[in-house]
Amino acid sequence: MNMDGASCTQSTVQPLQDLRRLLQRTAAQESLPADLQGEFSAALDRLRDAVEEQGRKHEALLLSLRSKEAECQHYRDLFESTPHGYLLTDGVGTILQANRAARELLAAGQPALRGRPLSDFVPTARRPELRQFLLQAQRAEGVLGCSLRLQPQEGPPFEAGLVASCSADGSGRPASLHILFRNITARKHVEDERERLLQWAENLYQESQLAHQLLDALIDTMPVGVILCDGQGQIIRTNEAAVAILGEQVGGTVEEPRRSYTPLHLDGRSFPVRDMPLWRALERGDLVQGQEILIRRPDGSERIILAAAAPIRDGAGEIVRAATVFQDISEQRHMLQTLRRQTRDLELLNRLGQDMGASLDISHVLERMLAAAQEVIPCEGSSLWLRHAERERELVCRAAIYPQRTRSPQGLCLEWGQGVVGWVAEQGETVLLGAPESPCCPCPATDEETGLEMHSLLAVPLWAGGRVIGVLKLVNKKGGGFDRGDRSLIETLAGALAVAVENAQLYEQAQLAAAAAERSRLANELHDAVSQTLFSASVIAESLPRLWERNPERVHWGLDQLQKLTRGALAEMRTLLLELRPQVLEEGGLPDLLRQLTDAAGSRSRVDISLSVRGRRVLPLEVKIAFYRITQEGINNLIKHAQARRAWIRLHLRPSGASLRIRDDGRGFDADDIPADRLGLRIIRERAEAIGAAVEISSQPDQGTEIFLGWPDPQWEGRDAAAE
Description:
Elements: H1 2-29, H2 34-81, E1 85-90, E2 95-98, H3 100-106, H4 110-113, H5 127-139, E3 144-150, E4 158-168, E5 174-183, H6 185-221, E6 225-230, E7 235-238, H7 240-246, E8 251-252, E9 257-258, E10 262-264, H8 277-284, E11 288-296, E12 302-313, E13 319-328, H9 330-358, H10 362-376, E14 379-387, E15 394-401, E16 413-415, H11 419-427, E17 431-433, E18 457-464, E19 467-477, H12 484-510, H13 516-526, H14 529-550, H15 553-580, H16 582-587, H17 590-604, E20 608-614, H18 621-642, E21 646-654, E22 657-664, H19 679-690, E23 694-699, E24 705-712, H20 714-723
């Protein structure tokens, strides 16, 4: 703009100077010569041209000035309207100009900002960062950015993102700084949150890696087999326990696994792949539990496994993997079968003990014993030999069972020491021949008494009273040879048999004595409860050593049961002594006598018997004995026939009489199907009638049985009549 003004002035001054000189010459000569007139006219023309030219340039200059002003206003508008704070500072950061956004962010007007250093709006601790940033911006050739905390004149501080560039003067030295800034607190928070999330994700990843490592270590060290497959059914993992159980490494897919073992049902039927737990979990999403499978391994051995399987789903519920877990339960099943067999044998022995204790007929006892021995250990033949009644050095076969032989040894006699039976009787030791555990002990080719071809033999002495009273012999166990378990069981059975035989022999001898009738009554009423209790205690005592080897924790239970049975035997013995001493029965109180009965009964059975007594009075002797005998018969019946778990006995003593109620939760019976003259019911009714008492017996199938006995005191009724 200055250059255009100078040229315009120079083009106008020259014609004016020419015109002044011409006028001076004209004034001196008072007339204008022709040549001067021409010059004057030419000067005027040039002056006119110069003025016109000056007008045109002036118009152009005005247009240029208006354009420059519009452009400046445009930049001022941009400066003011930009959404970010814009500061123009000198080289050391003193604010020269600030746009509206900057004034709002710093909470100060233009006059308050102009001339203030930017460091006034920066916390003291962060000002060294600002100085360093300004120095770097002056040296940088381009744009430089940083993050800095700003403190407005009013309001809370905020995190700002700064961008600065430097402009130079004519000599190239830094003259001013252009600084753009904005509030990035939210972005900073987002970035911090992102960093936190990234760190959390990294930590989670590390933890997941650690969890995977721990899971891998856990799977590898688990005592159960584990097989994993992916969502496509590809088997991806098999731990060492699975290899040990299955006998090989498993690969391939769930649909077509690479394996040599064969899965079977427990009955030997083929086990289809689509029934396998892993396939069901993957394809159907089933949760499989407690599946028993028979595994025939590559070496021909068999294992029974208990398997479970479950699908593994992602967040959307889609099955991405499946896993199966299984364990070898072959030993457990074998132990369970053994335990079931032992339980069955013990129940059989218990029933046998009850039968033998309830009978003093030696023939019945021996036959029942042999039948029980055949039921416990199936074999081709068995026989029972006892000492001859008159010849002590001879044995006579009192019972024998040989279903497939027409020739029976029953009635035969053997000399003491003759054959296997005679040797066992003479030595008092068990003979086990042809057992798998002792192949060095060959079995005789034939049975000496029957001629039966033999492959195994078991002969057990019967001890009673410190001497051998007989021999139990079993021949040819079905399905293999006799083992130690058979020996222990038969020895226990023989012990119970010896007691029963001795009791039967004593009974036979007692019939010759004067007290045979009384002892017979006691035997019929007590059912030889002491023998049953001792037999049970003997069975438990015999089993404790084997139980210690297999399951030491159960030994404490056995000892508790043995202690209970011992206490029960003592209670039964006291009851027996009470029966043998009638004066004690006469002198004792009825509540004490009934308590003695319930204690003895509870010890020899699993029935929980509860006794309660209300009131106090002395009953006549015959009434007390009748109440005692009826309670005794009721307890025996519910133990022997009711199959009850609990029983309640309620005795009510009052001045006007007495009542007794015996109730159980057993199987009950239909009163219409039970003959009225049945021995137990008849005895109860006869005893009640003998003392003038009323008796009611009510029962329904599966609803238990109740016996009610009510005795009214005749003397009390007489006093009531006299009072009236």
